[in-house]
Amino acid sequence: MMKDLSIKRLKNTSFVNLYSDFILNRNMCSDKYIKILSLATIFLNSKDQYIKRLGYRMIIIYSNQTNDYRPLYEIAINLGIIPIAKFIQTLDKYSFNKTLFTELNLSFFELYNRNNVYYSEEQKELIDFYNNKKDSTISIIAPTSYGKTDLILSTLNECKHRNICIITPTKSLLAQTKMRIINSNISWINKIITHPEMYNGNEDNIVAVLTQERLLRLLKSDSELSFDYVIIDEAHGLLNGDERSVLLASVLIILEKRNKDIIFKFLTPFLCDSDNLKIRNTSFEIDTFKVSEYVKTERLYIYDIRDKISFCTYEQFLDDFYEIEIKSGIMDDIDFIKIYGADKNLVYLNKPTDVEGFGLRISNRLSELISNKIEKACKDIAEYIHPEYNLISCLKKGIIYHHGAVPEPIRIYIEKLYSELDEIKYVITNCTLLEGVNLPAEKMFILDNKKGKGNLSPSNLKNLIGRVCRFNEIFNTKNKNLIKLEPCIYFVVGQYYAVNANVRNFLRNCMKIDKEVRDKPANVLLTNTNIDRENNLKLKSAEEFIENYEKGIIENYDNRYVSTFIGKVCFLNNIKEINIFDKEEEIQNSLNKCYKENIFIDNTEELFNILEWLFFRNVEDNERNQNLLRFKYIETRNFYKMFLDWRIESAPYSKMISYFVNYWNKISVEGKDTLVYMGRWGEESREGVKKLWTNIKYKSNSEKINLAVVRIKDEQDFLDNTIIKYVEVLHDIGLIDEVLYLKIKYGTDDKRKIILVKNGISLGLSNLLIDKYIKYVKVDLVKDTVILQRELIDRMFNNQENEIMISEANYFIK
User: Fold this and answer.
1) Which residue of 33, 46, 294, 777 could cross-link 51, Cys pair, CB 3.0 to 4.6 Å?
2) What whole-number distance in Å separates Cα of residue 191 and Cα of residue 734?
3) Confidence (pTM)
4) Torsions phi, psi for 809 (to 5 deg)
């Protein structure tokens, strides 16, 4: 009978009634608990993986409900989940008397001990697989907490004196990975390249941590450069159909062409089939290790306040919803989070505007904290940004928010505050949390089930949920129980969900335990992506880019090649906003005219006029390129001239905010057009459907200040990610002054400060360190490396420097 037992059969038995009482901890008694334990034991011996997992879930819930962890101790040993068994042995009430059995267990546990960290059986198998496949292309599919960063360090330790590159999807993850490598003290690594310009061509071996865009620029700088090992972190991103994912695939194709023996390591928390990572015009085969271990078991809840208020739990094994009595009266989303929240909570929303808006809403309902550390933090943020910055109002109430428009030094600082201060209970964030950011949290509240324009996919939702109750938090010896093995995830359905959002169906689609989930490869360069009429042109365009970047890669290529110098330079600099084949002759003629008239750019006004005349007027007119199409207006060019001048003069954030607000006030007083571009923060449309603009004259001074904060970050990103590509073209074709080029790119032409910026240190901190603390900063102008001495931090504290600066400096010290 056991082999026939399935979830489907189980749902048609009286077990459902017993189980619902158990899940809700309703009317439970010793007899019922005995039945639960008996059934769980039977289930654990089933051959059906879902029935087996259900048995394990029942044991965990039983142990936490009754505070009796003996059954879980036995099961954890049998299943090889050593960290659980080891933790239970540390609990006071389980001070096991020494017997042959317990001594054997202790000896057995030590087989899974590495550097005083106890691994599960499957974690150990994963590590062994990875090490045994050192010279094979592999994919590792393992949830958050399974130590994928340790695998990266393993490659660096084992593959000495080879060219190794780690590709990360974001700059923040890049910085995090770089610091983990530095802190691991791997003796043979003298330099970690994080910017293409850090490569000088005479290195014996290279270790690089780069985004795909930076890696492409590095490959451009040396056509002979190749890598032996390439680790792709968050590799599931390769499946997406967006430009960055196609670029990542393009870079991998180029890398294999340069070294046919290259080894790829794909690391991802979620993937169904590793074959979906295979890329056209490559020949690598993939060995796979996929973690099947089931350690945490989520408790999923829906609190819906849209019409009739309802509260239920979703049981993902039986695919059923159990109603929960609301004993606290009518609660809105904030009341609910306050009542059901833990000491550390993650609140997820989709839009950055909603992230900030909800932060202010909840802060208005909380009391101000009495804390010297928070008071000092607020003072430092006020000095660094502005006293009216919304984040300060939130921080005073024990809240931080986290999205892509929070300045990087502030992000580093508030993450540190949240991790260290018990008073800070809430992080309100969006999809930045899906990109490798790790913060402590016991509970999660999902206030919107979207990511971008669509719903969170099953893998994205599971990845998000995996950020709660990480292993180091579960097995912290300060804990007195294992309740964190049951992370509580609350879907609080209110004003931020779509009006027609069916959250129950959404949960069934994403979390039902036996729901078949398939990868949906959309990247046209992947072998398993279906090519049809709709995406055939996109595939052609991607292959044209690769072949024009580096000839001879695409087999049986019969498409176009550029015929001009400027066309080739545009491809090498990843210019995608212009149809280069259609426009290259026209742009080349304009360039020839520049040469003939000895045009040489040495100021920002001329820079933007030439960029518009040479390039931006040739940009394809579509929704994606609205940012560049704006440059046809003299007002836009004047604004960016002004903004770039601020950056070149190294204006701090606080000063740039003042400049922004003064500029907006000035155009309002002078009766000029007050509809200003705000991108994703916009409220009105202009010559299009998307709301990208805001009428600034209707905003209060405080609103202008906070809009200035996010616009500065967004404009800096726009300059660094888009405009800089065209500046690189100007540099390659010899039209721009070297000093101006350096100041645009780094904010300075000081060689020492440039090296600090290349190594990930903000321009503001770079200025402070070189101008005031050079004694504690070791800069190698040949290797492009920097070492900050430990004494620097003490000196900065003694001089009462802003702790945001100190926090950032500390981030870069071993």
Assistant:
1) 46
2) 30
3) 0.93
4) -60, -40
Q: How many CB atoms lie within 10 A of CB 622?
A: 9
Could you tell me how far CA 16 lies from the centroid of its own chain? 40
Q: What's the first-to-final CA gap in the chain, in angstroms?
A: 59
Tokens of 83: 């960290």
Query: 263: which 2 tokens?
Result: 């080894």
The runs of H, that is alpha helices, within 573-700 are 580-596, 604-614, 626-629, 634-648, 653-669
Query: Which residue type sits at 224?
Result: E
Which phi and psi angles does 352 have, rounded to 5°?
-55, -35
* Phi and psi, residue 498, nearest 5°: -60, 145
Tokens 């309100």 belong to: 428
pLDDT value at 4 more than 90: no
Query: Using CA atoms, how far apart are residues 639 and 651, in angstroms rounded to an integer?
Result: 16
Q: Give residue 340's identity as a one-letter amino acid code.
A: Y
- Amino acid letter, 205: N
Q: Which of the residue ranges 60-74, 122-136, 664-678 would you say has the lowest mean pLDDT?
A: 664-678
Question: Hey, which CATH number is domain 121-290, 3.40.50.300, 1.10.540.10, 3.65.10.10, 3.40.50.720?
Answer: 3.40.50.300
312-511: CATH, from 3.30.70.270, 3.40.50.300, 3.30.70.920, 1.10.3720.10: 3.40.50.300
Q: How many C-alpha atoms does 196 have within 13 Å on its Cβ side?
A: 16
DSSP string covering 666-702: HHHHTT---EEE-GGG--EESSSSSEEEEEGGGS-HH
Q: Quickly count: other Cβ atoms within 10 Å of residue 717's Cβ.
A: 14
Token pair belonging to 809:
């400096």
Q: What is the pLDDT of residues 396-406, one digit of tens each?
A: 999 999 898 99
- Is the pLDDT reported for residue 3 higher than 60? no
| Residue 100 pLDDT grade (very low, low, confident, very high; cuts 50, 70, 90) | low
Most confident of 228-232, 783-787, 809-813: 228-232
Measured CA to CA, the distance from residue 407 to residue 412 in angstroms comes to 9
Cβ(576)–Cβ(721) under 8 Å?
no
The percent of residues in the chain predicted with pLDDT above 70, rounded, is: 97
Burial letters for 404-442: b for 16+ Cβ neighbours within 10 Å, e otherwise?
A: bbbbebbbbbbbbbbeebeebbbbbbbbbbbbbbbbbbb
* Interstrand relation of 345-348 and 691-695 (parallel, antiparallel or unpaired): unpaired
Helix axes 565-572, 580-596, angle to 10 degrees: 120
Amino acid identity, residue 13? T
Within 13 Å of residue 533, how many CA atoms lie on the same side as its CB? 0
Strand order in the sheet with 675-677: 675-677, 691-695, 684-685
The whole-number pLDDT of residue 1 equals 42
440: left (phi over 0), alpha (psi -120 to 50) or beta: beta
CB 109 within 8 A of CB 85: yes
pLDDT digits (tens, 9 = 90+) for 239-284: 999 999 999 999 999 999 999 999 999 999 999 999 999 999 999 9
